[in-house]
Amino acid sequence: HPDVGEMKDEVEAQCVGADKIVKFNVKYVIDAIEAVSEGMIDLAVQESHGPCRIMGAGNENYFCVVMPLAK
After folding, report:
1. In 3D, which of 50, 3, 56 has the Cα closest to residue 26?
2. Measuring CA to CA, how many Å separate 13 from each of 1, 3, 5, 71?
3. Do residues 48 and 22 make contact, with C-beta atoms less than 8 angstroms apart?
4. CA distance 22 to 42
5. How far is CA 21 from each of CA 5, 24, 47, 52, 69, rounded to the nearest angstrom?
6. Which of 2, 25, 32, 34 could be stapled to 64 by a disulfide with Cβ–Cβ 3.0 to 4.6 Å?
7. Measured between alpha carbons, how far is 18 from 30 in angstroms, rounded to an integer?
8. What would the pLDDT profile of 25-58 be if each residue is shown by its tens digit?
9. Sheet of 52-56: strands edge to edge?
10. Please, which residues bridge with residue 21 across strands?
11. pLDDT of 3-28, one tens digit each?
12. How far apart are CA 71 and CA 59, in angstroms?
């Protein structure tokens, strides 16, 4: 069934701060990333199980907030 399952992927990233494990609906993350015109993105998560802010690197004029899946 296309709405059920698990997917893992890896991307090159530069991380700052402590490791966090947060689960998101990948469609919402992809939609937010596709809306960014910059070549690199900033993805910020303040706390585990918290929302994620996605914005173009260096561009504070536009950002998306993606809420995590329930625990």
Report:
1. 3
2. 31, 27, 25, 25
3. yes
4. 16
5. 18, 10, 9, 12, 11
6. 32
7. 24
8. 889 999 999 999 898 999 998 887 889 999 999 8
9. 41-45, 52-56, 64-66
10. none
11. 677 777 777 888 888 888 888 888 99
12. 31
Which two structure tokens, joined as six digits, stand for 9? Answer: 């992927």
Residue 28 one-letter amino acid = Y
DSSP string, the chain: -TTS------------SS-------HHHHHHHHHT--SSSEEEEE-STTS-EEEEETT--S--EEEPPPP-
